[in-house]
Amino acid sequence: MLKCKWTHVDITDTTHLYAMVESFNRTLSRGVLLASALDTETTGLHHIYDKPFLFQFGWCTSEGTGFTYLVDLEETPELAIRTITIWNTLVAQAPIYLGHHVSFDLNMLLNINVPYWAPNISDTQIWIRLGSDAIPERKGGVPLALKKFATNYIDRSAATMEAKLSKERTAIAKKYNITLKRSLGWTLKQIEEFFKDKLHTYEDLPEEARQK
C-alpha cells in the first residue's frame, strides 16, 4: 500500500488559491497524479436544500506525496465559490475523482451553483467493496461508513476529527434554527416538527410564514 506524506493548507486568501493551482498543474505536468478526492460538510438539516459550510479536496501522487485543502463557505463565501469553480476545472483532468457517498457531495455542489460535470467521478464505497470481501458489516465485513472505515484502516484520529466537525455542525444548525424562529415566530418544537418531513418545501410553509 502506498503511504503518502501529506501537506495540508486552509485556503483563506487568493495567495493560497494560486499556490494550489500551481501545485496541481506541476503534479499534472509531471504525470505523477494518481487520484483526487472531495468532501463536503453540512448541517444535515435537509438533504435537498442544505448547503455545505466546508469544502475539502486534494490529491495524491505516485511519488508518495499528498496535498489536501479546505475552504470555509461560512467565513469566506466568495473565495470558497471561486476556489471550487477553479478546482472543478482542474480536477476534471485527474484520472479519477473520489468521494465517499459521492452523490451527496455532488448534490451539495449543485445546491451552491458550482456543479461538477466531468465523467471521472467515482465512489470510495465501490473501491472498499472491491478491495474486501463482499460481506455486510453486520456479518463481520468491512464497514462502509467513512468514519468507521477511516478509523479502522487509515487514521485512528478520524473519530476525533469527526467529533470536532459534529460540534461545528450542531452550532451552525442551532444558529439557523434561531434565525428561523425569530423570522417565523415559531417555537423550536414547531420548526423541528416541520422539518421532520424531509420532503417539505418552501411552498409547504403557512402563507404568513412564506411572506416573512
List the helices and strands and how they pair.
Layout: E1 5-10, H1 14-29, E2 33-42, E3 52-61, E4 65-72, H2 77-91, E5 97-99, H3 102-111, E6 121-123, H4 124-130, H5 146-153, H6 158-184, H7 188-196, H8 207-211
Parallel strand pairs: 1-4, 2-5, 5-6
Antiparallel strand pairs: 2-3, 3-4
Written account of the structure:
The protein is an alpha/beta fold and 212 residues long. It is 46% helix and 19% strand. The protein has helices spanning 14-29, 77-91, 102-111, 124-130, 146-153, 158-184, 188-196, 207-211; strands at residues 5-10, 33-42, 52-61, 65-72, 97-99, 121-123. It is globular.
Coarse shape: globular
- Fraction in helix: 40-55%
Distance between the termini: 56 Å
Overall pLDDT: 82
Low-pLDDT regions: none
Helix tally equals 8
Number of strands: 6
Radius of gyration: 19 Å
Main sheet specs? 6 strands, mixed
Brief descriptors of the model:
single chain; 212 residues; alpha/beta; six-stranded mixed sheet
